[in-house]
Amino acid sequence: MRIKKNMNLNEIIVKYPETIEILKNNGFKGLDNQVVLEKLKEITLEEALKLKKINIDSFLILLEESIGEDKVLEDKNAITLTGLLPCPVRTPLLEKFQNFLHKNKDINIKYELKAASAGLSWLKDDVINANNLDNLSDMFISAGFDLFFEKKLMGKFKEHGAFEDMTDITEYNKDFIDLKDPKGEYSMIGVVPAIFLVNKEKLGNRDMPTSWEDILSPEFEKSVSLPIADFDLFNAILVNIYKKYGDSGVEKLGKSLMSSMHPAEMVGSNGPTITIMPYFFSKMIKENGPMIAIWPKEGAIISPIFMLTKKNKRDELKKIVDFMSGEEIGNIISHQGLFPSVNPKVKNLTEGKPIMWIGWDYIYSNDIGEIIRHCEEIFKKGAEL
Questions:
Q1: How far is CA 86 from CA 83, 118, 139, 208, in A?
Q2: Fewer Cβ close by (within 10 Å): the C or N end of the chain?
């Protein structure tokens, strides 16, 4: 890693300005103030994270992923790939991709694959500003229900049959058979499962929560940390709760909110009673500590990692699609990131564990973007935000 825990904060910011946004999002203030920056020469990253009770190892991963380099080409004839990659696997995945391109010099491509911590706003802006299909990237990889199903975003192109599943995978991994798009427009490479992390010391006389229904019960009001800053996963949670429990369920989820924390903060023992987080971060908890990871009995809510490809660029994209959906990438995201792969040849570490998925019938018969906006309002009402 380029960033070390004994580096001072000033050194990190000056050398890698890309890290500023992540630091700001995790409570570091005054980074645009020169006086503050001078003071930051006196404190190491490790010391600062201990003060904020943020897990050092997981936060280092986030910072490292934010400074990864992307290939830039000026060739206007190059095909384009845009997207977000989960932070824990971005570096190894990019390395494999770059090796793949080195061996396939006939592929002329321009790509920008940022860390998921960068957020979806820049991607949405690109899609909103693309007033016709030619101005849209040829291929997208990212989680995010609103990006891919919002009628003002990808929906406006999808209605014209612009996309095609080119993976040639006839049946997904046995744990995810229902995830394959029956219309053959969207494809996936994996999923991000949301599980519970419970602080046994703060549980008191309450029973261990083992289901989403438990989370919504009155005894856990203002006891839960939700990944609100992780829009992909949070939106997936909102939509699934809404589908299963309706408005009242979403409002109860709001009532459960104690705080919104980044997963790197969630693993600290001074957090709330329950934190909901990607499965990957549960592996950061200390053995024999107060925290215990719980896989919800009715299933971990998942946010799929979608892959969207233009039908009219099939010949140019096919090799890349085969690589991204292949067993090698599947093993990286599954075994290094704990993001289960849909590739049928990959043996996922979560094999046999149930998932909660809204289903393609629900997606195709509803305006998902409108449902998300509706859920946000109900959630805010419950949380009194």
A1: 10, 10, 17, 30
A2: N
